[in-house]
Design a protein that fits this description.
The chain is α/β, with parallel strands linked by helices. The protein has one domain: D-Maltodextrin-Binding Protein, domain 2, CATH 3.40.190. It contains four helices and three strands, in the order H-E-H-E-H-E-H. Helix 2 links the parallel strand 1 and strand 2. 15% of the residues are buried.
Length: 104
């Protein structure tokens, strides 16, 4: 079951990126420290995705703030689809939205 979900995820992501085009790397941003389940999942997806889309896929860990650090990092990147946030649940996204509204 896990492998079928993994391949479905890779297929979905690969459909977002045409094989031709710039060789710009794709960043998978993980809001947790290296070595956790989410990090291992991102690294497991990165290699076959890279082979499928013919572009480098880099996993970046941005732990801290219950996911707010990673979400802030991704939100400041260009909205060109080259930076993706990898989450296990939506809790950090909701938290970051509320924190940002309090600061603004």
């Amino acid at each position: 079951m896990f492998l079928s979900k993994l391949w479905a995820c890779i297929g979905f992501l690969a459909a977002l990126y045409p094989a031709s085009g710039a060789a710009q790397s794709v960043q998978l941003v993980v809001p947790l420290a290296a070595g956790g389940v989410t990090d291992i999942f991102a690294r497991t997806v990165a290699q076959p995705l890279s082979e499928e889309i013919k572009r480098p896929v880099v996993v970046i860990n941005r732990p801290g703030g219950g996911g707010a650090v990673a979400i802030d990092f991704v939100s400041r990147e260009r909205p060109d689809g080259q930076t993706l946030l990898v989450l296990r649940n939506r809790g950090p996204v909701l938290t970051a939205q509320h924190v940002r509204s309090w600061i603004s």
